[in-house]
């Protein structure tokens, strides 16, 4: 009897391991991870923080089981870019000096740092278990569903019922041509997701990984959501992404021997454009009809500056999305409206983890972008455009929003950084005694 029971247990273990180690299981977990990360606002609105945290814990268990089952198939050396490790480590270390008065600051920092690490782990899992084209397909499938649900609810609220759906933050302004929020809580977040979706659908179309009819319908859906969101920050990011796409289109058609000259020329041109945009920033803001949004951000940043001098080097301690505690409550009271962030990822990081944390975050985004850009400009497959374009959107959006520091935006940043690092690793290159060049250039 005991022998039979032992044999049954062994068979059950092998069956479970084979199931958890299968490609279909990894695909399902990837879709779940992306869906959970980008629908977190809707999940919180429906079942609250306990439900979201329970769902996240279940996701991490599934990711862990899949990793254990496929342990031998994973190349563990150089999994994470050092920039991710150091930035996340610094955020976690901020628990030691978190000093927000009037609140249990170390506990806040510990919980929020764990939340940051959880989504980073999910992002690492996605980057490890799936190829770039599979990741693009996963994001495309999830974005199609989330944007479709958003439009359906906006139609229900604004046309069929003519009533807001308060618990989701949907105002029902579709008949007035927006702005709409969908299931994402704000028009800027909807615009951010719609832009990510639009670029993802374009890559799907160009790689012929979906039918043409489906690709056109998907791009139309994303474009409608982007337009009706009425988000000025999204329009600016769209402009940057289109310029980057045009530049990559040209670079991919230049000879490998002369491509570095064009890269330097583009770098100089980009610096010139940034300086020019800064000089004419007021006029650009007026053209984008973003004066009201810019004034809101300026007011928040002005209040933040009053508290920055107290902890400039190490910051106040990592909290991610702002809690209802000092000094964040003081800033909200001073500005007269609630805020969940500093409305700029760079400033938010500076405030929470100081100058050191801000430099580490800039290094994370910058190094990932350089790697992804070089890969996109050198590799033949169109799919390598996707990480570079995602990082362009993240880098530009982070000037006016903090999406890159939480949930879906943060997981997307981790996925792109890990994929770029694994395809162009400085550590592997130094160990081999050669510069880190894309594979296409090594093959000649």
What does this structure look like?
The protein has 444 residues and is mostly helical. The chain folds into three domains: 13-74; 82-129 and 233-444, no CATH class; 132-230, no CATH class. It contains 18 helices and no strands. Helix 6 crosses helix 7. The longest helix is centred in the C-terminal third of the chain and has 34 residues, at 345-378.
Count of individual beta strands: 0
CA radius of gyration is 23 Å
Tell me the number of helical segments per DSSP (H or I, 4 or more residues long): 18
Report the average pLDDT across residues: 85
Shape: globular
Please identify the structural class as seen in this structure: mainly alpha
Q: Tell me the major beta sheet.
A: none
Could you give the distance between the termini? Answer: 64 Å
Protein name: Exopolysaccharide production protein
GO cellular component, one term: membrane
Keywords: Membrane, Transmembrane, Transmembrane helix
Organism: Agromyces albus
